Amino acid sequence: NAGVMQNPRHLVRRRGQEARLRCSPMKGHSHVYWYRQLPEEGLKFMVYLQKENIIDESGMPKERFSAEFPKEGPSILRIQQVVRGDSAAYFCASSPYRTGETQYFGPGTRLLVL
Amino acid sequence: KQEVTQIPAALSVPEGENLVLNCSFTDSAIYNLQWFRQDPGKGLTSLLLIQSSQREQTSGRLNASLDKSSGRSTLYIAASQPGDSATYLCAVRTNAGGTSYGKLTFGQGTILTVHP
């Protein structure tokens, strides 16, 4: 059973470009979470999704950031018009259908904005 | 708003020592608490999950305790090895119900170095 997969592992963008980060949850997991780890800071929750639904987006910046988890395919975290402050490691986690279960984390995508 | 603090921020010990990492949280209404390990440039590996109704969990040389009323958890590592060197993160899931049910609130982590 493959773990949580994220791609790309490293992404370089210039200011103003768009960044698309993908997350494939573990098989059988229908809950996906995105977290961001800024340099020298801890992990911060961004958004919690189930298939086709955003459950909690209280940690998402109000502008430029969006997330989806379609019925088919991976979850996507999209950052429009990136700025240098978006440079961070973005982690995706998944858990089974029952809430309260362990969250399993992917290896992360390291975004560098030049 | 839940806040999680980990002490110490960094710890360096010789191989073979037993050690304790501390985690405290401000809102005791938690659903569970999870300890993770993060290696440089890598993702997070779940070590132990303690439900709010439990007092401790053990896995090999690791033992985690939970005192929900005082808002504290400790991670005990027995007979430390150089391979234990990593950042250890504590995370709580607050039992706020509704949509905030899923998210984890993380501490800043403890950077552990075990030298031979």
List strands and helices in order, with pairings.
The complex is a heterodimer of chains A (114) and B (116).
Chain A: E1 5-7, E2 10-13, E3 19-24, E4 31-37, E5 43-50, E6 53-56, E7 65-68, E8 75-79, E9 88-95, E10 104-105, E11 109-113
Parallel strand pairs in A: 2-11
Antiparallel strand pairs in A: 1-3, 3-8, 4-5, 4-9, 5-6, 7-8, 9-10, 9-11
Chain B: E1 4-7, E2 10-14, E3 19-25, E4 30-38, E5 44-51, E6 56-59, E7 62-67, E8 72-77, E9 86-94, E10 105-106, E11 110-115
Parallel strand pairs in B: 2-11
Antiparallel strand pairs in B: 1-3, 3-8, 4-5, 4-9, 6-7, 7-8, 9-10, 9-11
Order of secondary-structure elements of chain A = EEEEEEEEEEE
Give the rounded overall mean pLDDT of chain A: 92
Structural class estimated from helices and strands of chain B? mainly beta
Q: Portion of residues in helices of chain B?
A: under 10%
Total number of strands of chain B:
11
Instruction: Tell me what portion of residues of chain B adopts beta-strand conformation.
Output: over 45%
Task: Give the low-confidence spans of chain A.
Answer: none
Summing up helix and strand content along with how strands pair, one would put the structural category of chain A as: mainly beta
Rg of chain A (C-alpha, Å): 13 Å
The count of strands of chain A amounts to 11
Largest sheet, strands/sense/barrel of chain A: 7 strands, mixed
Output mean pLDDT of chain B.
Answer: 92
Query: What is the overall silhouette of chain B?
Result: globular
The percent of residues in helical segments of chain A reads: under 10%
